[in-house]
Amino acid sequence: MPHALPELHRLDGSSALELIKSNQITVEDYVQALIKRIEERDPVVKGWAHFNQDEALAQARALDALPADKRGPLHGLPVAVKDVILTKDMPTQYNSAAYVSKAPIAMDAACIMTLRSSGALILGKTTTTEFATCQRGPLTTNPHDSTRTAGGSSSGSGAVVGDFQCPISLGTQTGGSTIRPGSFNGIYALKPTWNSISREGLKIYSLTCDTLGLYARSVADLKLLAEVFRLEDDVTPPATPLSLKGAKFGFAKTHVWPRATEGTQNAWEKAKDLLKEEGAEVEEIDLGPEFEEIWRLYPYVLAGEGRTAFLGDFLTHPDVLDPLILSHVRNDTKITRAQQLEGYDKIAALRPKIDAIAARYDALVTPSTTDEAIKLEEPNRFTGDASFNLMWTVLQVPVMNIPGFKGPSGCPLGLSLVAPRYHEQKLLRVGEAVGQVWGERGGWKSAL
Amino acid sequence: MPHALPELHRLDGSSALELIKSNQITVEDYVQALIKRIEERDPVVKGWAHFNQDEALAQARALDALPADKRGPLHGLPVAVKDVILTKDMPTQYNSAAYVSKAPIAMDAACIMTLRSSGALILGKTTTTEFATCQRGPLTTNPHDSTRTAGGSSSGSGAVVGDFQCPISLGTQTGGSTIRPGSFNGIYALKPTWNSISREGLKIYSLTCDTLGLYARSVADLKLLAEVFRLEDDVTPPATPLSLKGAKFGFAKTHVWPRATEGTQNAWEKAKDLLKEEGAEVEEIDLGPEFEEIWRLYPYVLAGEGRTAFLGDFLTHPDVLDPLILSHVRNDTKITRAQQLEGYDKIAALRPKIDAIAARYDALVTPSTTDEAIKLEEPNRFTGDASFNLMWTVLQVPVMNIPGFKGPSGCPLGLSLVAPRYHEQKLLRVGEAVGQVWGERGGWKSAL
Fold this sequence. Notes:
Strand content of chain A: 5-15%
Oligomer: homodimer
Structural class of chain A: alpha/beta
Number of strands of chain A: 11
Low-confidence stretches of chain A: none
Strand order of the largest sheet of chain A: 1-3-2-4-6-5-10-11-9-7-8
CATH superfamily of chain A: Amidase signature (AS) domain
CATH topology of chain A: Amidase signature (AS) enzymes
Largest sheet of chain A: 11 strands, mixed
Shape of chain A: globular
CATH class of chain A: Alpha Beta
Distance between the termini of chain A: 23 Å
């Protein structure tokens, strides 16, 4: 056996699946290693909203009992699921006092159906801010520095993958809820094109923005997931790795750039230098004033859609909901439907424009976060600033966080690659090449 | 007591609620009357996917037991729910062999939460085509002629309201699934602005098109629902009834007009004549070639989104799904993501244009269906042609079916009124005035 059991948790999912496939380990071996890691680390990281090792082991044994010809492409892959996504055998509680329950809602979200039917194992549910909406964080800490946030709203999903407790997790993103925890936890994150993975069974906040997100510690793992979720470009990119020599990158600071502080400023320069060292063409680009308008329009979309999304909860259990949720339904910001429609229509007009801009490059590069993870402060445990992510979310383009850079306190941070809508395969290929360079020479290595 | 119990089922919801409020009848009296109607008529109409009179009566008694100060605005209102909408206490089976179960999924859709917290009573689940997607109809028949379809996919919801088995029902619309059954069953139907009522807990087909729909036999009932669902225009229209004298209507045949046959052709002329008799200005308008493009683009959106929406089901239980669902996931029509995006972007650009056109009138008028309900034919029980509805659905504007016209076989058909997005209150006010005229003098009266 090439890996001692206690080290199995360090593998990425693809490597572990290879060991399972070649009968060097069982799914149970793998899950036992993760359980051990979770037992050691969960008291500090607190990434799980629901985790039951007996349930996890029962799934592992059932998978081990499957004959080879019944095994799917993800056979034995443990996945941690943000607790706003329905799982038929585990409770879904949304970090909301209105949904505290040990009883599962007997339905799998569409993405969970896809994962299970491909052989994945649902390891547990991970922490979130309430309804993946609010900024008040769960108890989760950053695995690289427990005095800092793991980001949010997909706090637990980012933390448990960054902490080697699970190789893969699912998040969601409405503002920056997938990319920000990706950056803060030093892992890969993919927010694919809007609605390219079904959102059925996910709590709704903004129908226009909400997107399922994927976390992993390797691009190989994201590629495996992309295959299972059938994220197929119209034109399949070459199977060979991308050579960075001659590759073109458009660095888009965007109008939010003044919010970037030391860590992101340094990463920005380092990222450019490293790509240039590889022979890539690097260009700083200005997206112009019409994209800056999104700053004004995005809140219209969010408030208008939140007003609708939470009415049922508001009427059913008003006394226990976060003030932000109540304020959306009451429309405290007095946003009109005309403003919401202005947001819809003007942003819709920008989508083909950003596609066309992104298509001129191998990828756009843009900040993932303003800096490394911020310090946790009671009582709200604010999960950080999503300013750099909002624009791309509402533009519905795929975004990938590439880890590798170090903040002023030694915590990780990443930068984002962006591609035109429905170009996940292109993005993953570019992300793999870029990730190798930034990951090796960006300055940050996980000490875990 | 002004109404003998056996006649209570004939009342619209608002009238019944008045009797309950003034203590002339109990909720149980009302539900008993509906149960009697259902027992008499369900063997022919077959509109229910799940109906249990004990459950209905238990809800009624619980409502009757509520003190007056705990009663909501819909106190005692029975609502029939299309069986693609989650109800925590009744099974949700989607007319799919993959979901045959007597066990409820323990979750209420957001719209059900809103209704229950406002005092409504969920009477039962109504029939649908599989996943509200397929054209193969359920066993439901048209209450006005049992040899004909009740339309679809909201077959049961249209039929049970048209048949006086329930005053109110919920449907959904992705193509014409709310408006078509409205027309065929001789009732009012409202497909509100996209995402103006939360779609959480509804099966997903097309995220861009799917919309919750409402059925009633009076505009007063739709107004009551609109209030509870907070369908509020930015500018509240006057509370006084609209005078048709001087009101302006744009009659838009659209490029689909060649599909209209005798019943709709006659209704069209009669509708104009009746409005003119009332002193309204009536203008035939040509929306021009860019709207005709929707005919080509809508299938791109539908196929692209269906391909994503059903992947989980496809992988989990491929052997029992309708061929249309399988074909979507396999992308048998070979629609590219580029075509899907062309559909998204070009149609998005038309939304503010149709808003501006509709804003020039009190309402646009357009066909609801090609004609009265077609004959049921085995084995597929085709539910009819949605051609006249697709455009408005994907444009996301509110549409209201107004009943009142008679087809060549004496069956009902309606015409649609259309308003700009987020103008439900305006639309309902216009619909009330128009409905009085068309309903009284359009030529059709329910013989039930």
